[in-house]
Amino acid sequence: MLFSIGQTRYEQLPTSAVASENLRGKASRLRLPRIGITLCLSTACVCLFIFASSFKRAPVYNALDHFQSLNNAPTVDNHYGLSPQRRAVATTLYSSNYAIATAVLAHSLRRANVTSRLLLIYIEGRISEEALCITRAAGWEPLPVPFIPPPHHGDGILEWYQDQYTKLNIWSLDQHGVDRLVYLDADTLVLRNIDELFDIPFNFAAVPDVFAPDDPRGFSLSFNAGVLALRPSSKILADMTKKIETANFPLEQAEQSFLNAYFASKRALLPYIYNAGIVIKRQSSDLWEELKREMKIMHFTNVKPFLQENQAAHRILSEGELEAAIDGASERKGLYSEEIEIWRETYRKMMRDKGDIISRCYAA
To answer: Please, which residues have CB within 8 angstroms of residue 227's CB and are 6 or more apart in sequence?
Structure first.
């Protein structure tokens, strides 16, 4: 689908699996010039190359290009010197099979000397007592929150993104004594202390997104919602939930796309060291090596070392099963074997420190 603004035409991100397939097909057709250079052995091929070269890819959808005035809150609000009890790191748990991932994240935070509260939000009735026990053992305070349904009855949103709007409940944590919050996806790992994120003067900050090399978006001006630094506000939450249905944004990336629209002119962009998606390593190995010197948060965006393939949402792996899953992830995703080993070592350190407590959580 193309949008026209002035003389420029923009290609919206796909809003369904079918549209995604169409986009991939279009991208394949637009790569004809490169193929033409390789295979052009006849006059006909030369003509084909010239014809294909005449096509220009339309820029992909960007929330700033399609700006909507959704958010009237201030951008800056200085709030320094808060006690650790007024600061929190939060994560989400939508299915029990991510319980070990959240536990490893908590362990990495404490090893990095992050002293804030650790709040884990989950949908009541969705998470097993076994999983909640594991998260408590690792240091999280589990906090049930209401389910926030996706807009348009979930049409055009992939199945595994249907719960993602529930993440917006992190803005309600002001009701639980939190003045500054750092949100981390469960598939992140903290490598160095991040306390400075609690003292930034902006009400909302995030890291620019990065997509796989075969995705035309590449390094993006949009932000990734896996790491967020923000000031919670129940008023903002009420405003967001009121506008989800009417805001115009591509549905495929769920709450991340909505947040990009809502905070389009109100966000500060953080350096990649605070959300180093491992896909960066595919995009630029030189950049990845540079980031490793100061990297604070690693994000396992396109490999999950803590999951088996096709693992049921309710199933929590035993220690032996998890080691086998990590081995399998390393074999399948050899490019990321070093990063997978970093996750494994953090898991093993956690089990050395808290394995007895965590083991008692497993159902008999």
So the answer is: 182, 183, 184, 185, 188, 206, 207, 270, 274, 275, 297, 299
Q: Decide the pairing of beta strands 204-210 and 219-230.
A: antiparallel
Radius of gyration of the chain measured on its C-alpha atoms: 22
| Structure-derived torsion over alpha carbons of residues 24, 27, 31, 32, reported in degrees to the nearest 10 | 90
Nearest to 68 by CA among 327, 260, 295: 260
Q: Is the domain of 176 the same as that of 282?
A: yes
Q: CB 63: neighbour CB atoms within 10 A? A: 25
Structure tokens at 266: 């109100």
For residue range 30-61, what is the model confidence (pLDDT) as tens digits? 344 444 444 444 454 444 444 444 445 556 77
Structural domain boundaries, residue 141 = 84-359
Q: Which helix (H) or strand (E) holds 182?
A: strand 180-184
Tokens of 156: 């055009």
Question: Is residue 49 located within the same domain as residue 104?
Answer: no
The Cα 180–Cα 163 span in angstroms is 24
Bridge-based pairing of strands 180-184 and 219-230 is: antiparallel
Task: Tell me the one-letter amino acid at 239.
Answer: D
- Both 115 and 12 in one domain: the answer is no
CATH number at residue 346: 3.90.550.10
Residues 48, 142 within the same domain: no
Q: Which pTM value belongs to this model?
A: 0.81
